[in-house]
Amino acid sequence: MSPRFCLSAVLCLLPVAAATLPKTGPEKVGLSAERLKRVDRLMQRYIDKGEIAGAVTLVARKGQIAHLNAQGVMDLDTKRPMTTDAIFRLASMTKPITSLAVMMLHEEGHFLLKDPISKFLPEFKNPQVAVANAPNERAGGGFRTVPAEREITIRDLLTHTSGLASGTAGATMALVQKLNATRKPEDLLASYTVKLAALPLNFQPGTHWEYGPATDVLGRLVEVVSGQSLDQFFRQRILDPLGMTDTHFYLPEDRLPRLTTAYEKAEGQLRKLPALGPASRTAKFYAGGGGLAGTAEDYLRFCQMMLNGGQLDGKRLVSPKTIEMMRANHIGDLPMWQDTLSGYHFGLGLRVRASNGQAAVLGSEGSYGWGGAYGTYFWIDPKEQMIGIMMIQLMPYAHLNIRPEFQNVATQAIVE
Q1: Which of 71, 287, 311, 370 lies at a CB distance of 3.0 to 4.6 Å from 316, suitable for a disulfide?
Q2: How is domain 18-99+229-411 classified at the CATH fold level?
């Protein structure tokens, strides 16, 4: 065996360093360094009040990182300081990546957005719709079923207008909660979608916007069309080409020490949540709706690719026209959550700002993004060529205003 071969073999076994965008002084990209310090002060206030254990915040503009900071701790028991390469459960920040995967297959001519999902997942053929027995009551009073007026389309799933049974709303809520509670980590996405398809819909497809398990079904669509597991497709088609080496459904052993602890607020104190999900050594369920874990800088690479019109560092994932399609309003005037999504429409896997006045948070019309159940959050502002990412691990987080406050204190740093 030659020395050159031995060296090559050793290098292949070493962990690959995560790719990163260039870093620059804020003033070089039209941001005020002094005003950006408000991001740090905001996060520190939440840490000092015991609302979060720690945070990583990132602000990029014009393709360069102007702010990247870690504050607080990764774990309250060990007091291990937070680091900028800490790994967070992304939860629903997985959804935009799954949606992009669907659009990659759409570009290849495998389907149209108006195609029924049953064309690929026959378990969704001839859906039934739950109708509550009591007037004006969608949960608790029982239900009857009627045939759906039309089938669920791929675009319905991308826009959360499919009517799929949800664990948070609707007449069949208890059935979905039971389904989710009985799901084992070793289960496959294929078996889950069959069970989900057997449940009645919450409403006629296309008539309402309601957040639910649609993106998990899209993940299964990717598997069926591509002939790969969702994990394989992500790795080969999205994560590796973008250099997102720290982003995984289930973390390799060498990444586990960087996984931050997740918390809930109970009786005024932060209490550790069970260490499930990305820390599992046996799970095989690749949740397109919320299974990934990764770092802020990894997710920045995904965001920068989107902002660049589908390419990063010379590697093109999709056409600029596909990004344009994802950013379009696909739901018309259907109302969404008025407390957090006022002023927004919904595109394909992303919220899209329609009105600055109604949104009442600093930013630009046409900006888009999403967040995750543990409080993670991102937005992309094409007009300002700006990206903001916040990583925390708190569930639930909705009692805090940390997301819009972060967006405000980051955006107000724009000075030119």
Answers
A1: 311
A2: Beta-lactamase (3.40.710)
